[in-house]
Amino acid sequence: MQDKAFLFTHEWEAGYSNNPNDLGRETIDGISRTYHPKWDGWKLVDAYRAKEIRSINDMDKFIKTYPIQKLVMDFYKQWWIDHHCNEMSSEIALAFFDTSFMTGEAVWLLQKAINFVHHPIIPKVLKEDNIWGNETRKILGFTHGLVDVFIYKRGKYQNRLQDMRSFYRGWVARTFNLGLYIKSGYNPKVIKN
């Protein structure tokens, strides 16, 4: 499932971007210089850029080279572990991995989804504190139907982000495609907009 998660997220995050409307500003394959300034790939980018002024097309070609892509995959592998995806069922791990690239509130969304699924039985089974702890870990294994609710909660969360409206359409398409990808395994390149 790890490879499947990497493929999906990489397809949606792929490329070089330096959008002033994006809170992450300069990014390579979803790795933001703002939030991950110590990532080793930035040294290679800076060295490449220092040679001469480069266009976006040149940068896109450069980041597809082996040294950068190896560092990207190493980052993704560490992200998978650091965000506890290895402790989740395969479907929720895939959805959670991708969501954690989009927002720092992936645990909170997961907790909201767990509480929603368990609501008829136990109201507020988990504190919604955006902290991955023992309670979240324990209840995760006893929550059936969670991935669909998690994707739904992700969509609702995206609707609230009024200040980031220029990204909304892409987020909706990505979230929709994530659900399809989890259920059918289709290639995420097929439907982007």
Description:
There is one protein chain. This protein starts with a helix and ends in a 9-residue tail after the last helix. The longest helix is centred in the middle third of the chain and has 17 residues, at about 65-80. It has about 190 residues and is mainly α. It has two domains: about 1-80, no CATH class; about 90-185, no CATH class. Helix content is about 60%, strand content about 5%. It has helices at about 1-15, 40-50, 55-65, 65-80, 90-100, 105-120, 135-140, 145-160, 170-185; strands at about 15-20, 25-30, 30. A three-stranded antiparallel sheet has the order 1-2-3. The radius of gyration is 18 Å and the shape is elongated. The mean pLDDT is about 85.
